[in-house]
Predict the 3D structure of the following.
Amino acid sequence: MPTFWIALGLSLLGGLGGLLIASGVLLIHDPLRAKLIPWLVSYAVGALLGISMMGLLPESLSTLPSGRVFATLLGGIMLFFILEKLVLWRHCHTHDCEVHESSVASVMIGDTFHNFVDGAVIGAAVLTSIPLGVSTAIAVAAHEIPQEIGDFAILLHAGYSRGRALMLNVLSALASVAGALGAFLAFDVVPRTLPYFLVIAASSFLYVAMADLIPGLHRGRTDASSLRQIVLIALGIFTMVWFS
């Protein structure tokens, strides 16, 4: 199968896979769902950290000087901080989300942009190696699960029906396919930029994991659930190492 079609298929997995699982989670009764979401977030944290530190950055370091890699990584983190300030990049993963008061239009524009970037990341990873593309798609899908749950909460809070909320999230998720297509076209013209883009991708995953997801896991007291979080984070990291 041509690499192009593999990239498009994996971008669909990354974009729609998390949405489908999130839709199923929303059907679960509230008490169980409240326990399940932190577990999903914990796995997503491990997956994002694992693919960044064990997949994307090592690939970049194999072709670029370390100083250039870490300067790009730092610049990427600053970029995503600015984008989050502009509500173009945020990761709401609970029903009690700080962006509930934002307009639905700004939230959906931000999510569409986010999904487009995720698709481009998957496309770039596939161009580097198929195993890296697979693990990147899994990491994207994992962190999209809590993201999509938050999106549903925002849309329902705004008065949308479940059917319409699902339709809007599907349309937003399909931007990942456009991102993968854009990556193939762009890196065919300027292939030397591919390692830099992998570093930017790593910075986006690290930013989401450490700025948006991990702080939520620290809420509440330290008990048996903390051990589950650690185990699931480790499982997420192991999954990325295994598939890469």
Q: What stands out?
A: Residues 30-61 form the longest helix (32 residues). The chain has a mean pLDDT of 85. The chain has one domain: 3-243.
